[in-house]
Amino acid sequence: MNKPVERLYNGIVKENPVFVMMLGMCPTLAVTSSAINGAGMGLTTTVVLTLSNMMIAALRKLIPNRVRIPAFIVVVATFVTLVQMLLQAYIPSLNKSLGIYIPLIVVNCIILGRAEAYASKNKVIPSMFDGLGMGLGFTIALTLIGLFREILGNGTAFNVTVMPKVYEPITIFVLAPGAFFVLAFLVAIQNKIRNRKAVNVKLVTSCDAGCAGCASAGICGGHEKQIDGEAVLKEQKQE
After folding, report:
1. How far is CA 90 from the centre of its chain?
2. In angstroms, rounded to a whole number, what is the distance separating the alpha carbons of residues 51 and 57?
3. Could you tell me the sign of the dihedral formed by the alpha carbons of 35, 50, 94, 178, in that order?
4. What is the maximum span of the chain, computed from C-alpha positions, in angstroms?
5. pTM of the model
6. What is the CA 96 to chain-centroid distance, rounded?
7. Residue-range domain boundaries for the chain
8. For residues 134 and 52, what is the distance between their CA atoms, to the nearest angstrom?
């Protein structure tokens, strides 16, 4: 599973760091009071994650196993410092909004986790796409959370008014509790979709006449039949 498309899909959908793995909760809950802040934090983390994955993958055979974690932190801290300096120079407003959470990227469990689990064991190109996929998944999650909170809490989206004048903003959504509410709502939707796909499995098969396996499954010889995964699960529970 080292193909670029597979690594991107893995990070964005299959193992989304926020909605699936529940990692990086500190910046997820703290900086997503608006969609711009969420996107800015996500893209900043994506740059650091991608570059650090590439560097660690390139140095994986040179880093002694006993000091690999300190070495990873040094690499990550270097890129975080560079990114923060660029933000201070070119996007000072975003740098001010994100504040202390930019330096805290150094100890973000997503970055250290991918360095330990993937980059330290794979080549540079797959590691680059792994970091890019995880970073984009993190960015999408933070942007969605920030967008929902901004719309409900301020009536705007990316600082543009989208709600009618009669709409009364729900202030709690731009406060700390609102982050938990929106995160729980989005995770619940994501779990509902994943569970529905897992339960409604379509099993299509065929075999020769007289097969005992097909007889037990309710499939006659030579013909195909679709089995409802939910019905099968109910029968197994009753047994």
Report:
1. 27
2. 10
3. positive
4. 75
5. 0.81
6. 25
7. 4-175, 200-238
8. 13
C-beta of residue 17 within 8 angstroms of C-beta of residue 24: yes
Residue pLDDT, tens place only, 20-38 = 999 989 889 999 999 999 9
CB atoms within 10 A of CB 236: 8
Reduced to 3 states, what is the DSSP secondary structure of residue 194? helix
Q: Which of 140, 127, 123 is nearest to 45 (CA)?
A: 140
**pLDDT, tens digit, 9 for 90 and up, residues 147-190:** 999 999 999 999 899 999 899 999 999 998 999 999 999 999 98
Q: Do 38 and 140 meet the contact criterion of CB atoms below 8 Å apart?
A: no
For tokens 């990692």, the residue is: 23
The first and second tokens of residue 229, run together, are 């995964």
**What residues contact residue 112 under an 8 Å CB cut-off, 6+ apart?**
69, 72, 73, 76
End-to-end Cα, the chain, rounded Å: 37
Phi-psi region at 126: left, alpha or beta (left = phi > 0; alpha = psi -120 to 50) = alpha
Buried b (16+ CB within 10 A) or exposed e, 129-157: bbbbbbbbbbbbbbbbbbbbbbbbbbbbb
Contact 20, 142 (CB under 8 A): no
